[in-house]
């Protein structure tokens, strides 16, 4: 019990806070750096472990000798994971107005803006597969590929990946310009090869789209060798 005049630890005072302060505390637990916050450390560690366990389960479920006899157990695990990830997504959405990027916005707009961020979209995709299974009464294994999207949630907890994604965001205009230049080079090369080779090899260079295949593998230096000029 804390001494007189001292505040209780954050982890113990969460549920005693008023609504606004509770939302702010929830944002700190889920979104802030967990180095100095024991509660956030525990939450982040458990979520990382759950993400890794889900990735492992989605992979081993495709092995007949494992997926068939343990189908019921895997289904229960997926149900529990769905509930946890859905609660996590809901809490992140609820706490979004405390994000400095959206501070000052109306609550609804702040949450919509947060829902459109890449991290929130990945969180939503993480809960969609099992929801679709429940709605469509489909085989859980059909959505194994989509369940692997949960692995991308680790980017939230990796400083290295977060830095890489931030660098991509900052340099997105330059990257788009590079892609535009590559597309222009491919189109020009395909057009030239169409003019030069379409009579000699109509099956391979009979149109610009056909010639574009040669241009792509040449520009990217893959060089399959299945299409070559004569």
Describe the structure.
The chain has 230 residues and is an all-alpha fold. It folds into two domains: 10-158; 174-219, Helix Hairpins, CATH 1.10.287.70. The chain is built from twelve helices and no strands. Helix 2 crosses helix 5, helix 5 (71-95) packs across helix 7 (118-136) and helix 10 crosses helix 12. The radius of gyration is 25 Å and the shape is extended. The termini are far apart.
What features would you highlight for this structure?
230 residues, mainly alpha, Helix Hairpins
Could you give a short description of this structure?
Helices cover 67% and strands 0% of the residues.
Write the layout of secondary structure elements.
Blueprint: H1 10-13, H2 19-31, H3 38-60, H4 64-67, H5 71-95, H6 107-115, H7 118-136, H8 144-147, H9 159-170, H10 172-197, H11 202-205, H12 208-219
Helix pairs in contact: 2-5, 5-7, 10-12
What does the overall shape look like? extended
- Largest β sheet strand count, sense and barrel closure: none
Give the H and E element order: HHHHHHHHHHHH
The portion of residues forming beta strands comes to under 5%
Radius of gyration: 25 Å
Category by helix and strand content? mainly alpha
Number of beta-strand segments = 0
- Terminal Cα span: 85 Å
Count of discrete domains:
2
Low-confidence stretches: none
Rounded mean pLDDT is 80
- Total DSSP helices: 12
Helix content: 55-70%
